[in-house]
Every structure is written in C-alpha cells, then in structure tokens.
C-alpha cells in the first residue's frame, strides 16, 4: 500500500489487477532451497498434470525439478518442489484464468452502462477494460489484496494518477499508479502475478499491462471490483 498526499490530506495507500489471455510468468525473488524434497505432496497428481508430467502420484527427481521451477518463477516458498496447497492453489487459479477466455464479463457483473470502465474480478484475479459490452483490453492476470488487506469491492472512480509514484508508507516504487479507492491503485510491480499471498490492497499488474491501463484510463473513469480472492 502506498500513501498519497493530496490537498494537504495524508491518505495511507496500499501496495497492491487477453487477447488471448496472456499469462506472463515474471521471475520473482524466492528463497532458494538447497535441496529437492523426495516427499510426495497432497496435490502431487494435480501438479504433475498441470506441468505435463507423467501422472502417477509419486514424487520423482524430474517432478521435483519441474515443481521447483514453477515455484521459483512465482515466488512460492519454500522452493523445494513439494506439491502442497499453496503451489496447487496457484496452478488451479491459472487454469481457471485460462478457462475465462475472451468473455471475462460473461456473468454480466461488471456494469455495461457506464461507458469505459475497468473491471476487477477478485475471484479469478483478472482485470480488463470494457466500453459498454465491448472488450477494450484484457483480461489480464492481476495480484490483489491478501487476507487482512483485501481489495475493497464496489463501484468507484479513478481519482488520481501518478506516473512515478513512490509509497511513503513502504518506500517502494509504484509505477503507473492510478488510485481509485482511498490508497488502492492499479500499478506495476516486478513480481509474478501469482506470487502469494498477494498485495496490501492495490491491484498489482505487470509493467506491460500497467502501462496499457495508463494509456487507456483517465481521471474520472469508473472502476468496478467484485468477487473474492481465493484464500481470503
């Protein structure tokens, strides 16, 4: 969460979301483990299937290497190749995001009578921009608030934009910040969008997507956030 100073009022902000859906894996810092576990995790078969490995439900050296690689790319720790609930949760979310395809607002939950609007689906950790019923950009994967810092739901508006914002609360850069609900903003981060457990409330985006949102949205544009992030 970043914080912002505007008109003399200090607002504590939150560091915090295809055509077809682009699930870009951005390498994130992870605590490297010096070994690969031989233990079979409770989600071994699911992980094997997701990674295109032979599905036998038994941990092998090759299985562990593949799982560790996935964990390292997404900042999942400990990075020891164990197919536990956190690792499977990320894999399952990616599968669900892929299944959404080119119709992210199939449920009609994001308003289509507002003109240009940025939609955030917390359940699928996806965001997109639409104009009426027309999909303008996305859907793209995003990283929203973790448990205790959940991204607030509801209809708001982009009220302040800062291209080179730096959080004075956490002393971290928040490029392409577009604030829409108190200290919550769309902004770029150098993390995988599936890095657990999530942001402090902001809608984290890849640099590419945050830059595109910056070019498409303007102050006063509507933002609608709905659903519930897995694990919160």
UniProtKB/TrEMBL annotation:
InterPro entries: LD-transpeptidase, LD_TPept_cat_dom, Transpep_catalytic_dom
Location of the active site: 187 (proton donor/acceptor), 202 (nucleophile)
Single annotated GO MF: peptidoglycan L,D-transpeptidase activity
Signal peptide annotation: 1-32
GO cellular component: extracellular region
Key words, A-Z: Cell shape, Cell wall biogenesis/degradation, Peptidoglycan synthesis, Signal, Transferase
Biological pathway: Cell wall biogenesis; peptidoglycan biosynthesis
GO aspect biological process, one term: cell wall organization
Keyword Cell wall biogenesis/degradation: yes
Gene3D superfamilies in alphabetical order: L,D-transpeptidase catalytic domain-like
Domain L,D-TPase catalytic span(s) in chain numbering: 115-226
PANTHER family assigned: EXPORTED PROTEIN, L,D-TRANSPEPTIDASE
Protein known as: L,D-TPase catalytic domain-containing protein
Protein's organism: Streptomyces malaysiense
